[in-house]
Amino acid sequence: MGLFTKDIKTMDDLLLHGLQDIYYAEEQITKALPKMIDKATNRDLATGLKNHLEETNKQIERLEKVFEKLGQSPSGTQCPAIDGIIKEADETAGEIEDKTVLDAALVANAQAVEHYEICRYGTLIAWAEELGHDDIVRFLITNLNEEKTANAKLNTVALRKGVNKKASTSA
């Protein structure tokens, strides 16, 4: 089912598609995060990414509850947006030799993922509320809040924990 195909006829169909999109995205993120953790040399960054991997697994569990409450089986639909963000992150990381610069790139790439998720969850919450699916909204809000917190922590690592400063003074 493509985003703007005839398979989506109603707002409920659109909501389901959006849920399948973010479910797929979260699953892809659980595959990408371990690679990022392995590449990170900044301890705060590596710890933050590890913690977010655990959170992401919990987010997937919440999404599975959302599907259940809607009477649907949890399933993903390919999301070219998250695939592109992850592909770009992999390609960029492969081009950087300096570890301090690589850490700065990892933060930026992780934030691109977070911003995508924040956008998706915000939309899904609005649609679920409009459709009267109050029983799933709290799960989506919890995921959204975790994504916002993860993004704020990445900002802290980049700015206050010195990742950007070290990268900018690297030879």
Automatic annotation (TrEMBL):
Keywords: Coiled coil. The keyword Coiled coil applies. Signal peptide: none annotated. Residues 46-73 form a coiled coil. It holds the Pfam family DUF892. PANTHER family: PROTEIN YCIF. This is Ferritin-like metal-binding protein YciE.
